Each structure stands twice: as structure tokens, then as C-alpha cells.
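Self-study notes.
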Amino acid sequence: MAKRLIIIDSNALLHRAFHALPPLTTKSGQETGAVYGFLLTLFKAISDLKADFIVACFDTKAPTFRKEMFKDYKAQRPATPSGIVSQIPITKEVLETFKIPVFAKDGVEADDLIATICTTATKEDKDLEVFIVTGDLDNLQLVNEKIKVYTLGKGIKDTIIYDINKVRERFGVEPSQMVDFKALTGDPSDNIPGVEGIGKKTAAEIIQKYGSVKNLYEELSTDTAVLRPKVKEMLKQNKESALMSRELSQMKKDVEIDFKISDCKFGLFDEKIVEEKLYQLEFNSLVNRLSSLNSN
């Protein structure tokens, strides 16, 4: 059986858990609901996927290259709630007790680290299966025969695995074309503009027909593109926005990090140390599940 690597999209999971679960605090008043939800999802993923290796990626507060490219990138987002901010260090401490390596780097997003690790790990081990555990769908562009996205459905316990067919079924394009799809539709959650007036259905039809935004604009430049006049006009008027949106959506796969798959071997943690941390956070119900995790 192929070895499996889990990559945790940590900030996305914490945000999702924070908003999905009722507030939880320790006796001392420390908010812990997001950490608890994060661990519930992680424990379920480990159990479902029988992970051999695990690594976690985090965003940093520093501006990224995308912000330099487009000053309004993520500009509409409210500041991260203090309840989440205070739980990030705690999450990292818990991961440390599990001996799960943590990666974060100024100037890039967790998504770029995830893309880089996917690329490096699958080159290092051609048979490796990779599952990105996340709270959103930004990573779908990375899905291929070896890489899948394990994400949350309606709640914390409801999960969906996106493989190539699932991406096609949901969006009508190949995973590798998701950047072209977003170049046209934009992404309101990241304030990526896309092309005004182009919805998901039209974007999927265009990408199916032309394959990529590059091909589309080559056809438009020679006026050989067969599209409705209104759509053609919107695409021509918003060419710059479409090309920039594609660049903003594309994840970097070559971030300089010191990643080795062997450093991510899961199951080497000391159960007593983890127990102590979980009791400290008053996550007593999770302690009973530690033995089953270590047997993976």
C-alpha cells in the first residue's frame, strides 16, 4: 500500500473551526474552540486516511508577493478575530507535542508552502499519496492522480475528498485549469477581480472550449474566438484583470524551504507529553483517542 502524507492547511482549518463551533474557554479564560475543532478534524483525517507522514503549514502576518502585485488583494477581509490569533501559538504547541513539523515563511502564503511540499514530496517518492487537509477549496488546482484535497462539508465532522473527477463534477474543468477558471470568475473571498460579468457556468464553458486563458486571448487577438458578442466584449475589456487574476490565483511550487519527507514521519510522539498538553487545554475527551492515533 502506498505511503500517505497529510499536509495541514492550518489557518484555513482554524478559521473554519472558530466559526463552526460554539465558543470554548479553559477555566483560566483562554479561548480554545478553534484548537479543539482543528484537532477534531485532524484526528478524523488521521483515522480516515491512515497517515504515515504529517506536516503543517501556516500563514504569517507579513505582506505577501500577491499584496505587492495587487494592493487590494484580500483588502475586503476583516481583521482576523483576536480569538483565532490567540489560538495559533497554542495550535503550534500542540503540533510540536505530536512531533509534526510546522512551516511558515514571510512573503508567501501557506498555500504556496503546501504547493511546494506537494511538488517536492511526490518527486522524492513517486508512489506517495498526498492529502491536503483544509477548510476551503483554494488548493483544488493541485489535485492530480497523487494529490487529493480532504475538506470540510457543512460542519466539522462532515468531510469531502476532492479527486480529479470530483473537481470536474463540481466545476466543469480539470484541476490544473482551476487557475484559469478563477482568472475569469475571480474569487470574492480573496478579492481577486476576475472578469466582470463572467459567472462560473460561462467560465467553465470558455475553459472547456479554449483550454486556458492564454489560448482564449490568443484567439481573441486574431478575432477567431467564437463567443457571444457581449461575452467577447467583456473579456476584451478586462484582459489585464483576467491575466492578473490568474497570476494571483497560481500557487508557487518553488518556495525555498528545508523539507524532507523523512522528518514528517507520524507516530513518534510521546503519548504522556501529548496527554499532558490536552489535559492542560481541558480537552479530556481527546485523550482517550490518542492510542488509536498512534496505532496508525
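Second protein, same conventions, sequence then structure:
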Amino acid sequence: MGVHIERRKVGGSPNSGCDVNFINYAIINWSFRSIGTVAPGCGIHADTAYCAFSANQIAGGPAESGLSVYIAVVNTLTGSSKIHRVNGDPFNDGFDHFFPWATTKADGSVYVGWYDDRNDPFNTKVEYFVGIRPMVGKTSQSRRLLVIPHLIPASASPGVASSEDYTQIASGPDGVVHAAWSDTRDGASMQIFSQAVTF
């Protein structure tokens, strides 16, 4: 599945673009719908939009077996943009990072949340991760990760995987970032959980 990110000047024609390639998950256990991880989840601060998405390949560069989380940083006035890889584990390590969403705080810091399977040696469960870019202008190398440690089964019961297709992360006027995701920690059903992100 190919996706084209097109950059436009406000009220004008495209001035450049970037091809993003979604091939597939590395782990065969995941039955999640792919469209949920390709579609970007965005936050905006002043004149800059931050859109998180998952992909196997960016702009014709090297492809990896698993999905990484990327963030497109777009100046909404000029159309200029940059793309940064968010998850900090080694490139092409065979793990998947998917269903990301981005939000920003008033100080310009950017938070991205996503599902991540790097900590399960059997590749049947995922955790919810949160990463941070401390302020506008810093590279994505300046990040910290909060790992919400409950492992989420790939599919709790037949047909339930679609209910895990999206997560959300948002900040309010109080400056607190809240993450929301689905998991099956009660062992019986899919539930929605939320946690304040304090770093």
C-alpha cells in the first residue's frame, strides 16, 4: 500500500511531496486492520502540524520488515515539512510499532503514543508506548518513552481486533497530556483505559 504525503502552499499547488510505503506488519500474529495505522493522527501547535503514522519505508529509502512510527512536521504557512522516526529501537529489528497519534502542549512539546510489541519475546502481545519531543525545533532524537506495561493480546476473541484499531493522545489547557488505549487486562473483554502522561 503506497501513500503520498503532498505538501502545498496555502491556497497554492503542491511544491513537493513524499512517498510513504506501507508493506505489512512483521509479525504474523497481528490481525489489526492496516488502514488504522497508515492514517495519520495529528496535533497542531501555532503554525506547525505534527502528524504521526506507521510505515515500512519513507521516500524511497531503506525498507524494514516491521512498522516504525514516524512524525511529519509540517509548516502550515509555507508547506515545508520534515519526517522523523519516533520509536528508538534499532531500524529493521523485526518489531512493529503501530496505531500512533500525536498531540502538542502549549510549550511546543510534542507527544506521540502507539502500540509496540518489542517487549514480548513470543510476539503475541503489545504494550502502549508514549514518546516526547521536548520542544519545537528539537530533533526526534530528544525523546523519552513511557511504557504502559500491561501486555495486550493480539486478539482477545474472534472479531475483536478491530476495536483496538485506534488509540488517542490529547493535551488540555491544564498542560496535562492524557493517553487512551484499549486492552483486555480483565481477561474477559476489551476495555478503554486512560493515563495522564507526566514527563
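Instructor comment on the second fold: The first helix runs from residue 35 to 38.
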